[in-house]
Amino acid sequence: MAVMQMQRISICALKQHRKAILEKLQAMGIIELTDALTEDTYFQRMDTVNDRILFEKTASMSDRSLDILEGYAPEKKGLLSALEGKTLVEAEVQEDVVRRKDELLEIVRRIQALDKENAECKAEILKLENTIQSLVPWLKLDVPMKAQETEYTSMIFGTLPGNMNLESIYEAVAAGLSEDSHLKIGAGEDTGGWDIDIISSGQDQTCIAVVTLKDLAEAVEDSLRSRGFSRASQEWTETPSEACKALEGKIRKYRERMEEIKKQLLALSEYREQIKLLADYYRMRADRYEVLGEIPQSESTFIVSGYIPEKYVPELRKSLEDKYDCVIDIEEPQADEDIPVLLSNNSFSRSAEGILESFGLPGKGEIDPTMIMSCFYVFLFGLMLSDAAYGAIVSIACGAALLKFPRMADGMKKSLQLFFWCGLSTLFWGILFGGYFGDVVNVVSRTFFGHEVSIPALWFVPLNDPMRLLIYSMVFGLIHLFTGLGIKGYMYIRDKKYLDCICDVGLWYVFLIGLLIMLIPSEIFASIAQMEIIFPEPVNMLGKVMAAVGAVGIVLMSGRANKNFGLRIALGAYDLYNVTGWLSDILSYSRLLALGLATGVIAQVVNQMGSMFGTSIFGVIGFIVVFIIGHTLNLAINLLGAYVHTNRLQYVEFFGKFYEGTGRPFNPFKEHTKYADIKEETRL
Q: pLDDT tens, 97-141?
């Protein structure tokens, strides 16, 4: 239960060692960099924006090439590949990639060029297929599909809307020509200068070929236009069938090229791991250049300033002072500085750091409550789930994942570690309450063996005695709340605010304990607990005195900062009214009963449903199916419920007594890699 002690650090070194020192600091990952000095005559900042953008662009280009390779040659990944984390590579491997970076960048560009060419081939194929589709209605045409002329005739190709027959087309042309030629030409009569053939006809359009005398060509076309005629959009020097064959040949060539591209990309996929390291290298370089643009530099020196955990100072001194000409200055931060927060806990409590970080890190003057919170968290989580079999499943699954994937992301590792401990807590409570997949032992023995066998609870069965569990839930809640109030008192004593501790913590303890002594012998408590507790009269009198003294003290002292006596009393009375908040907080712990009963009831319903299939072989199969599906859903739902409600009890009831969480996280200058970690010095 600790927050690492931070110290302010300043490093002044020769400019010739700038690159090496920044690389070392980034590899160690133990310093959060801040502005060291304002610019002046001697110290200036470099403009590294263009270089940083170039490195970021190169890293993105490498990422893009990896995405391309994934599309053509996907990596084989298991169902739990998300838990594997980053690959750990030796420093020599990364150095080899850096030496070959120009060669690898050419490969990256080659991958993108091939992908671009492949996309162009796809686009051309689509274009050619659309062209072939447009030629399909003209396949019966046995002449080139191009407007042709002889000395006296013209040939026109085009389409009319809808499904038209030859008679209606002739009538349309004849009607249009009659005014100009002064001839009435009916369907079926000799047209005397033009002829029309229907090449194809469909619901949407009719394709026609028109042969006409040159003198009549314009008039014939105008007559057809009055019925929606439009010339064919494409002209071909060969027949449509010949054009289609030529286009299909082009498509085959494009497809062959695409196959060649695929083979080349498959061959280039052997560079996938090197490209990953290349992307990480440029990503780290971009980070270094961002820092390089922020640190002040003179003609021959540069300065780095920031925060470092005190425990890492000797390690840093040894790494830098033995190799480089530099001066390292360590000093205590000022009281008004915004110091970053880095938690330090044992392996058990560290698993709950993610829960605390979700709420907020400790601010100035606050303690790290992770250790105490983690104990309560695991305790209450197990009480909510409270089935031994479910707990065993959760612990075994999380433990196996932690052993199999030791390099999983830190956040995921903490979560699985927390659920591992929560699973053990659930196993513990399940044994106390006699819950093993609900009452599956009873149901199976009774249904399939004709003789009921049960595993007795070591304590009691909540479904048979729910009010008893309710009382214990509130007792556990009271301990939880009193602990939070006690931490507040400890913080006052640590800061030597003894009066505040007495008035804001001690009086509340006196008042609340007095109320409890008065409540326990009452009829209300007896009806809830289904048992009667009688205290000796001196104890009853002590409870009344404590409640009265506490109430009066709270009224008189809560507003002590105000000199106005009336306002002071009003503020004290308002603070005393917060006893209703204590009541609601204690009642909130009834969720321990509700979720515990929900788990057991749903499990019993699932078992009962499974047993309804009978004792035949089909009954056994039906029971197994219902058992697996039902208990899987029950575990998932109540696991989520226990997680959410345990978080709420910490955030609202527990933290509400002493904790604000206004701190900011420690953000060290380190290697922010995407694909692999470099095996070098120990990092945070």
A: 999 999 999 999 999 999 999 999 999 999 999 999 989 998 888
**71-85, 295-309, 442-456: which has the minimum mean pLDDT?**
71-85
**Contacts for 420 with CB less than 8 Å, ≥ 6 apart:** 351, 394, 395, 398, 399, 402
pLDDT per position as a tens digit, 577-634? 889 999 999 999 999 999 999 999 999 999 999 999 988 999 999 999 999 999 999 9
CB-side neighbour CA atoms (13 Å) of 646: 26
DSSP-assigned states of every residue in 611-655? HTT-SSHHHHHHHHHHHHHHHHHHHHHHHHHHHHHHHHIIIIIIG
Query: What is the rounded CA–CA span in Å between residue 645 and residue 666?
Result: 29
Beta-strand pair 205-213/230-231: unpaired
Token pair for residue 525?
A: 């408590």
CA separation, residue 21 to residues 14, 25, 319, 627 (Å): 10, 6, 9, 61
592 CB neighbour count, 10 Å cutoff: 26
- For residue 497 the two structure tokens come to 């605010």
Query: And the tokens for 645?
Result: 């409600």
Please give the model's pTM, rounded to 2 decimal places: 0.85
Phi then psi for residue 602, to 5 deg, are -60, -40
Residue 629 Cα distances to 396, 397, 634, 635, angstroms: 19, 18, 9, 10
Instruction: Collect contacts of 257-260 with beta carbons under 8 A, ≥24 apart.
Output: 257/117, 257/121, 258/118, 258/121, 258/122
Q: Where are the alpha helices (DSSP H) in 495-535?
A: 498-501, 507-519, 523-529
Residue-wise pLDDT tens digits, 415-440: 999 999 999 999 999 999 999 999 99
Count of helices and strands (H, E) across the chain:
24, 13
SS3 208: strand
Query: Are 386 and 429 in contact, with CB atoms under 8 Å apart?
Result: yes
Cα separation, 245 vs 251, in Å, equals 10
C-beta of residue 432 within 8 angstroms of C-beta of residue 454: no
Task: Assign residue 228 a region (left: φ > 0; alpha: ψ between -120 and 50; beta: otherwise).
Answer: left
Cβ-count burial of 66 within 10 angstroms (0-12 exposed, 13-18 middle, 19+ buried)? Answer: buried
